[in-house]
Amino acid sequence: MKREIIKTRDGSATIYLPEWNEHYHSKHGALQEAEHVFIKSGFKHYLSENKPEEISVLEIGFGTGLNALLSFFEAEKARVKMNYTGVEAYPVSEEELKALDYAEVVSGENTSGVFQKLHETEWEKPNKISTFFSLQKEKKFFSEISAFEDFDLIYFDAFGPRVQPDLWSEEVFRNMYRALREKGVLVTYSAKGDVRRAMQAAGFTVERLAGPPGKREMLRATKMGAC
């Protein structure tokens, strides 16, 4: 499928799929969306509620690596050990990564080097990026995830339900529920009623939150009990 690099409204880049009229990140601002949905409403929320010394994160849709890059710097700042697993069936090419150039918009020490390291690490094995950040990239379809209470936080960043409704089903969210530990949190940019109801049917307690620029709402789901 054809992929194009485009600039979003906050100056950060993302990948656009013309065939689906779908973006990897919000056209209103890729960086703003990632920071609001996954960092502020996900990582920082989990830290404030649970105060862990170590956290395990699962990203559904590793894609451009923007969420992992931001999480790296947040883990460093918070001095919390983060074990990050990114699942992606169709990895981004080296040429596309150079064109994205997130070092221009993400502040941090040696941003370009960190971004490159995240993408150069081997797949299917844990890679220690720094004292506070470990990354394991897994090339697989989301339906192949079989984790059981392995994660504290899920970044659910799949393509939207308009183009891939099967990724937002009750069955998928039951799998996400099993993957989380008790009090685990899942955050996503989507706020569709069907998505919220699928999460609730899977057992989650679901909150509607203010969305990032260009989007009125988003969802945060919490696992309040054991499987």
Give a concise summary.
This protein is α/β, with parallel strands linked by helices and 227 residues long. It has six helices and eleven strands.
How far apart the termini lie comes to 38 Å
Biggest pleated sheet: 8 strands, mixed
Tell me the CATH superfamily.
Vaccinia Virus protein VP39
The helical percent reads: 25-40%
- Report the count of strand segments: 11
Class of secondary structure makeup: alpha/beta
* Top CATH class: Alpha Beta
| Percent in strands | 25-35%
| Average pLDDT score | 96
* Quaternary form: single chain
Low-pLDDT runs: none
| CATH fold type | Rossmann fold
Structure description:
With 227 residues, the protein is of the alpha/beta class. The chain has a single domain (30-222), classed as Vaccinia Virus protein VP39 (Rossmann fold), CATH 3.40.50. Helices cover 31% and strands 27% of the residues. It contains six helices and eleven strands. The protein has helices at 30-50, 66-78, 94-100, 111-120, 170-179, 193-201, and strands spanning 4-7, 13-17, 22-23, 54-60, 81-87, 127-130, 133-138, 151-156, 180-188, 205-210, 217-222. The strands form two sheets. The chain has an eight-stranded mixed beta sheet, with helices on both faces. Strands 1-2-3 form a three-stranded antiparallel beta sheet, covered by helices on one side. Strand 2 and strand 3 (22-23) form a beta hairpin. Helix 1 runs parallel beside helix 2 and helix 5 (170-179) crosses helix 6. The longest helix has 21 residues, at 30-50. It starts with a strand and ends in a 5-residue tail after the last strand. The mean pLDDT is 96.
